[in-house]
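Researcher: Dear colleague, please comment on this protein.
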Amino acid sequence: MSGIVPRVGNSAFNSAISDGLSNNDNSKSGFKDILAGGDTYQVSRFNIPARCSLPLQTDQQTSKHLTVLSGIIHITLADDIMVLVADESIYIPQGVLHGLENRADNPALIISVDYNA
């Protein structure tokens, strides 16, 4: 499958800020909680509201391992789109274009372990 995932509903960035969701790291995302971290890693929990998305991005210094705890997440990874459900995970190498979408009517919860290069 190729192509970029079209936006469905609201951007999680805008929706989370307007809904006042948890944000313990003062980032603009509005839905990210940092659970642990060190010099070479960070563990974060993302609560992605229903019908919201995280924008496409690349991380030149960081690779990630994402695990879905609840909900259904559509993940764009380069030119592919994958659907992950609870107890499924994916590795995202540094420098690869990626984005997340929650197309469902319920929130989704994921854990991200980020590794610094």
About this structure: The first helix runs from residue 12 to 19. The helical segments are 12-19. Residues 1-30 have pLDDT under 50 and may be disordered.
